[in-house]
Amino acid sequence: MAWDFETDPEFQSKLDWAAEFVRTEVEPLDLLYPNPYDRTDSEAMALMRPLKEKVKEQGLWACHLGPELGGPGYGQMKLALLNEVLGTSIWAPSVFGCQAPDSGNAEILAHYGTQAQKDEYLAPLLAGEIGSCYVMTEPTGGSDPTLFRTRAVRDGDHWVINGEKWFNSNAQFAAFHIVMVVTNPEVSPYQGMSMFIVPAGTPGLEIVKNFHVRGFSEHEGHLRFTDVRVPADHLLGEEGQGFLVAQTRLGGGRVHHAMRTVALVRKAFDMMCERAVSRQMRKGPLGGLQMTQERIADSWIEMEQFRLLVLRTAWRIDKEQDYLKVRKDIAAIKVAMPKVMHDIAQRALHLHGAIGVSDDLPFVDMMNYAEVMGLADGPTEVHKITLAKEVLKTYAPADPVYPSGYRPALREQARALVAERLEHIVGNL
Ligand SMILES: Cc1cc2nc3c(=O)[nH]c(=O)nc-3n(C[C@H](O)[C@H](O)[C@H](O)COP(=O)(O)OP(=O)(O)OC[C@H]3O[C@@H](n4cnc5c(N)ncnc54)[C@H](O)[C@@H]3O)c2cc1C
After folding, report:
1. Which residues line ligand 1 (CB under 6 A)?
2. Which residue of 39, 56, 57, 310 pairs with 61 in a disulfide if CB–CB is 3.0 to 4.6 A?
């Protein structure tokens, strides 16, 4: 019997250390330096360096990676518990070496990169010396990869890339971009796309604009590629493997977002409960009113359901060691995440009255964060389709008119079974 909902005491003491450290040493940075990805902010970078050292001394740096890549190899389950601490802070993931989009990019470099690519890009990325960007979405097609048009054409020992991409997080401060492009338009996009490493500053690569999205620290870049030449050895994985590499990356990214969202949901819930026991109404505290109690009960149930689903998904990834085998679970948490975040943040906002809608409290940002979680890494609709298809795969077709629960037929079968047994009993008398 291996069911267990307890954290082992050794790791719990690390979580306790992390909670205190984030609260006292990291969260103050959130309020004063809005963008942990901005490496040009020398003051903020200088403040971050000793904090990273403390995390490394505790053995909590890049928790999701194995020892061969400089992490402790704790796996996704322990990362989920740690992200429940880090997810409330903008800076904490960077201080602990597990920030998006770098964590997902590191994962695919480790998985598909050549030794030379690992030495040049993965090693400094893992050491936190450089940042990276993942470049997939296009202005004319995001959710549907069959609409991607950015094209790479082979020219001698180089590839030449032309096209446009947008909403690429942290493009502005990235040292390199991992870019998904069409290399063979004659075959299905699932076989005709490839992934390239494009160093920042490569001639022809232009950042047209940086979008700011409310509730997010990093900016999202709009990139234009005009005859961008990259050496053939900058292909990441095999030619035509782009979709496969993307699936590996996005699987992890979605789960890590869900883990951090558990932390934000908890923060909104805690603030709602604090308000309920603090604000006085005519007949006592706000929490004494039944409609407030209903909001709190609903929120607690939704939060705990979501958290348990995220933890079980993390546990299944550790067990299967293959994101594809956990597709259904990942799609389910991706769908649940924006709804739980939105509903609990909205209730918390509402119970705070006027100050709840102001920028002095975090609820409006949280609600927009929920909207982004319903879009980034694929919209909710696409994940509902994946989830339903995965579920339906496990069912065999039955009679199309009389379902297998059709009682008259079941009764007939039961009668036949009972008659046979009775005959046996009578025969033995
Ligand atoms: C803050 C933020 C950060 C991001 N970071 C990155 C990044 O780092 N790299 C990157 O490449 N991209 C990134 N994205 C882009 C993100 O992945 C896309 O926005 C997402 O895939 C949706 O694509 P789209 O915006 O083109 O919407 P569209 O594809 O135009 O979809 C619009 C709407 O159409 C509906 N829809 C779409 N498909 C279906 C369907 N099959 N069935 C029913 N309805 C459907 C949905 O309601 C959907 O919301 C980021 C986006 C945001 C907001």
Report:
1. 101, 134-137, 142-143, 167-169, 213, 216, 220, 372, 375-379, 381-382
2. 56
